Amino acid sequence: MPGRTKYLLDETDMPTQWYNIAPDLPEPPPPPLHPGTGEPAGPDDLAPLFPQELIAQEVSDQSYVDIPGAVLDVYRLWRPSPLFRARRLEKALGTPARIYYKYEGVSPVGSHKPNTAVPQAYYNAAEGITRLTTETGAGQWGSALAFACATYGLDCEVWQVRASYDQKPYRKLMMETYGATLHPSPSELTGAGRAVLAEHPDSTGSLGIAISEAVEMAAADQGARYALGSVLNHVLMHQTVIGEEALRQFELAEDTPDVLIGCTGGGSNFGGLAFPFLREKLAGRSGVDIRAVEPAACPTLTRGTYAYDFGDTAGLTPLLKMHTLGHEFIPDPIHAGGLRYHGMAPLLSHIYELGLIGAQAIGQRECFAAGVQFARTEGVIPAPEPTHALAASIQEALRCKETGESKAILTALCGHAHLDLPAYGAYLSGAMTDNELSESDLEQSLAGLPAGG
Amino acid sequence: MPGRTKYLLDETDMPTQWYNIAPDLPEPPPPPLHPGTGEPAGPDDLAPLFPQELIAQEVSDQSYVDIPGAVLDVYRLWRPSPLFRARRLEKALGTPARIYYKYEGVSPVGSHKPNTAVPQAYYNAAEGITRLTTETGAGQWGSALAFACATYGLDCEVWQVRASYDQKPYRKLMMETYGATLHPSPSELTGAGRAVLAEHPDSTGSLGIAISEAVEMAAADQGARYALGSVLNHVLMHQTVIGEEALRQFELAEDTPDVLIGCTGGGSNFGGLAFPFLREKLAGRSGVDIRAVEPAACPTLTRGTYAYDFGDTAGLTPLLKMHTLGHEFIPDPIHAGGLRYHGMAPLLSHIYELGLIGAQAIGQRECFAAGVQFARTEGVIPAPEPTHALAASIQEALRCKETGESKAILTALCGHAHLDLPAYGAYLSGAMTDNELSESDLEQSLAGLPAGG
């Protein structure tokens, strides 16, 4: 079916397994460490936070994990998601490149996050858990978990980064419509939150702080567990349905991608699209060039250090070997582009260290300019996060225009911006700055790395 | 393919013609009248406001009109839209009924409105027009026209009802992202707006007033035309792609609807889904029971009168024979459910008078309760408008549960609520009232009908 605007799969063609890339890598990723002993963290260390099945998936040496039928039943509400050929954008750019985007905004909450929220809620419910706690920054993850908890009858409690809580009232309303309970973070409800507020009463919060709060609350309640929306191996694995579908859709298009470009915050959307294509590349069946794009305001891959660091600010999690800006990193509260986590998924950091993917950072004004151009040609207003990948895709398409190369570019349009429109307002009014992370702020943030990291 | 959660069509199976129901009706609908002469309004009366092709479609006696290729190219960005079987909602209700919903929220702006915004912008651009003016209430239509104008390079100027302009800042940002210019209505920019403000400086506005402003501005500029998002024949005709697709999708499902339930404001979403099914019924190929659902706060079909009335408040339009609450009707500004226009599409009003469809009004708390139940089972948070149809569909499904009937219910889920979440917040907090239109307000509003109406 070459020549189409979009490539659809029937729900019977939906992947029935997630792909775990770890066993296929030339070297295994470094394990998480217990912060007290310095020894690899075992399943017992994680049991207060995650259900057994997710702990098993986190350390699995199997290349494929079956997706439960009850999860497929919910996936079917929006999956398989469409693969689009951006013909109208190509025409506007005057490029010989072929630009494809895999669109995850068709999910009920408008992003890729339910791909992992749904199985996480399912496994917790199956193991008798009645309540999940989590953090959310921009709000995409909290919305997804609220939706997933509604589908399996779980209570859902979300700590939303203060800056986002105040700036994004619609996010709170969406989560509450699904039945979730919201708290701004830092909050007075946890020791971690109270400690931050004691020192910084006006703290605008960070994902690291919100994670500390959600983890603390889950650990204190036998019937509760914690859910994380990115970073961990099992989260990235759940997202591989994106890439597995895209592979089949490229067969329908009778094409193959030369370049794959995704945005990276914690790394789950990027890993979800890229890992199945990387499998093909490692097996010699593809020569695709894979690139991660991150904000200049939070440049973990391009300017962070590769070291053992905590996943949260209070130091409650195991130590993870990852690209990090330091767990005390506080993003600029006016940064509108999302992707603000201080670390990068350990699995993705390892793959980057192996030289299997490239990375670049882009300032947010160029990203929003790409978002506006995309909206006015392709219709969908992209969420701030994937505008980073769109900006890099447009750079590549314009390079092709100069060289005359007709590359196929695949990008991950992981969500729409319906609840992020004030960021577009800031861009259109000229109020937006690029707020690149300064050398001094980076040095200060990295100084907080744990000893021996 | 019975047993699926959703029924998809490939873009090559997209309808290539719109369906015009007028020639198939047992009696022709009464014509619009020139308010000065009382004679039927002719093409010349409409030429300052609409391009020739749309005027021709408005009075067409052809059953089918070809969709231009350039329109199909844009439709392909989201069409064909999916037909869903609401299996999770059915289970929650414990009903033997089969509930299907045709989902138009997959369009870039999240509603059915682009189905007509795109061809309207196309025909204007093709006839050399450079600027379109329009009104918007809840904001769905203004967003759709802003998107459509961006795709064909037209300027777009939108008068947004004041109450909505103030309560829905995200709508303004969406339209501006597509490049449109926004004004709250009533405005000081037009004679119609100034006249209202002189008498009511704090006016919260109405669709009727905003239409007057947009019409006035278009008529004053040779290079500009006006675009209407509902009510007129050509608008309803453009929406019939919804029903034509649904007919094909029911073939895939190997099922047929026993009941079709849609919400009605101006009537375009309802007509779009219902008219192709009504064609089948008139031809004896279907026994489907077709029902319109409207808000108790704006009950044009169930409590309005069938008379000639103006389409706008200032009396600038031809007189239309329709169910109306009177063109001076001002909806309660706290009404959150949309569907606030004072009249009903003349074509739909005529069909109702012929006894071919039924109608009922529902209070908005029942509607939002249905919306929340739908969100927590099917995932999508429905726009306020289609919650009216969902509430009636749930009523029908629960009747089936009592009687044991296994009816197939088809409803029109014409959009999602991402930009209407404050309405859900009002419902969840208990602040929402049913604000049924009072007898005295109805009498006062009907007293403004033109003489001889």
From TrEMBL, chains A, B:
Residues 77-415 form the Tryptophan synthase beta chain-like PALP domain. Keywords: Amino-acid biosynthesis, Aromatic amino acid biosynthesis, Lyase, Pyridoxal phosphate, Tryptophan biosynthesis. The keyword Amino-acid biosynthesis applies. Residues 25-34 have a biased composition (Pro residues). InterPro entries: Trp_synth_b-like, Trp_synth_b_CS, Trp_synth_beta/beta-like, TrpB-like_PALP, TrpB-like_PALP_sf. It catalyses: (1S,2R)-1-C-(indol-3-yl)glycerol 3-phosphate + L-serine = D-glyceraldehyde 3-phosphate + L-tryptophan + H2O. It comes from the Bacteria. One of its GO terms (cellular component) is cytoplasm. Its cofactor is pyridoxal 5'-phosphate. The keyword Thylakoid does not apply. Residues 18-45 are annotated as: Disordered. Its EC number is 4.2.1.20. GO terms for molecular function: L-serine hydro-lyase (adding indole, L-tryptophan-forming) activity; pyridoxal phosphate binding; tryptophan synthase activity. Pathway: Amino-acid biosynthesis; L-tryptophan biosynthesis; L-tryptophan from chorismate: step 5/5. The modification N6-(pyridoxal phosphate)lysine is found at residue 113. The beta subunit is responsible for the synthesis of L-tryptophan from indole and L-serine. Belongs to the TrpB family. Tetramer of two alpha and two beta chains. This is Tryptophan synthase beta chain. It comes from Haloechinothrix aidingensis. The lineage of its organism: Bacteria, Bacillati, Actinomycetota, Actinomycetes, Pseudonocardiales.
